[in-house]
């Protein structure tokens, strides 16, 4: 499943939940799920679990990148150099790719920043 597919499923699940909430005040869902697009768009329970895993993984990556960006922005105070730029770029690539072979790039960036 792609991030895009996971996003669509989670959006459909959220829309369904909103309609169910509105049904309590008789403004939304008639709970006729067999005829509802949201029911089919949100996928099976297994697909929903996978979509949630993907969403959590994406948020974890985003959080790491934001952390590295904050650290990198500190280099502006002491004169950003090519080494800092390269290590930052490699660390971000490591997060985005998710490949274990690049994990040491993240550690190298963190160590470099800790030395400053």
Describe this structure in words.
The protein is mainly α. The chain folds into two domains: 1-43; 61-116, no CATH class. It has five helices and no strands. The two termini are 41 Å apart. The model has no long low-confidence stretch (mean pLDDT 86).
Structure, briefly:
The chain has 116 residues and is mainly α. It has helices at residues 3-23, 37-41, 45-74, 82-97, 103-115.
Helix content: over 70%
Which outline best applies? elongated
Q: Tell me the total number of β-strands.
A: 0
Between the first and last Cα atoms, what is the distance in angstroms?
A: 41 Å
What number is the mean pLDDT? 86
Low-confidence stretches: none
What is the oligomeric state here?
A: single chain
**Largest sheet report:** none
- Total of DSSP H or I helical runs spanning 4+ residues: 5
Provide the number of structural domains: 2
Proportion of beta-strand residues: under 5%
Global structural class: mainly alpha
Rg, rounded, reads: 21 Å
Helix/strand order, N-terminal first: HHHHH
Secondary structure elements and their pairing?
Blueprint: H1 3-23, H2 37-41, H3 45-74, H4 82-97, H5 103-115
Task: Output the keywords.
116 residues, mainly alpha, single chain
